[in-house]
Amino acid sequence: MRLRQVEVFQAILQTGSISGAAKLLCISQPAVSKTLMHAEQQLGFPLFQRARGKLYPTPEALILQKEVGALFEHLQRVKRLARGLRHQQDRPLHLEVSPALAQSILPGALSNWRADYPSLPCSLAMHHTTEIVQRLCLHEADLGLTLQKTDHPGVVVEALAYGYLTAIAPAGWWSAAELAEDLPIEALEGAPFVGLTNTGTLWTELASLLDNGGVSPQVLTTVQTYKLACDLVALGHGLSVVDPFTAQSPREGTVQLRAIRPRTPVYLYAIHAVDSPLSLAAQQLIAVIRRMARDMGMTLCP
């Protein structure tokens, strides 16, 4: 089947009629009918049967549907990639950021960056790393920021800075002497705890630390984001463990912080498509983020 025939086949499957497929594809009904006829002639069997004014796929068409659907989805990805390349010069700086960074270091970084780029449009979307990489490879985004390293061959990954997995507690929970030291993972045994339903890398690493130490905190509340965990801890809901960027976000003394022992590094990564060099504006934003990370007490990567 030719690509046009695939498009027509998929459109009829979606709409159930020649007229609906023509409208969906923005072509004439005779063009749809002709393309369908040629496809059936080449295949040697009918693809649709008419009943009660609608077209229904034949058993043979249903067998084809799965493979054709995958091919059609790939074709749509190619079209999206082409659109991204065509409008690359016209679109704003498009950022794809993991939720933890979007709710911690990024707002301040964007404010500082805006001083140098007061009129440059910028858009920000929150996604997890897998989707960030996909959008970068499709040229639907310019720069990604995440706490999870990726080895996808289509992107360039740069480690900007790192801190350590951090335990947080309500103000006054630990003494000044305790705050000067890391928190042994064993200290979480039986402690009231705000857990995460997140299945990301950081939470997996924490789960491994707890399992290896035979430690079981008393999980009373579970949430979906590190920021919400911090907010609940500040209100006295117990302890939690979050990434260092969320932990160091301004909270006016409402939470206390201690690095978990054994120390577990958490890196901030900038990623972009391997075939799409960063613009000057994107490079400047990265420089601002590095400065802010240093000011938050993180260690800068070379």
Automatic annotation (TrEMBL):
Gene Ontology BP terms: lysine biosynthetic process via diaminopimelate; positive regulation of gene expression
KW DNA-binding (keyword) present: yes
Coiled coil segments of this chain: none
HTH lysR-type domain: residues covered: 1-58
Lineage top rank: taxon: Bacteria
Keywords of this entry: DNA-binding, Transcription, Transcription regulation
InterPro entries given in the database record: LysR_HTH_N, LysR_subst-bd, WH-like_DNA-bd_sf, WH_DNA-bd_sf
Record Gene3D superfamilies: 3.40.190.290, Winged helix-like DNA-binding domain superfamily/Winged helix DNA-binding domain
Listed GO MF terms: DNA-binding transcription factor activity; sequence-specific DNA binding
Family to which the UniProt record says this protein belongs: Belongs to the LysR transcriptional regulatory family.
The protein's name in its UniProt record: HTH lysR-type domain-containing protein
Organism: Crenobacter luteus
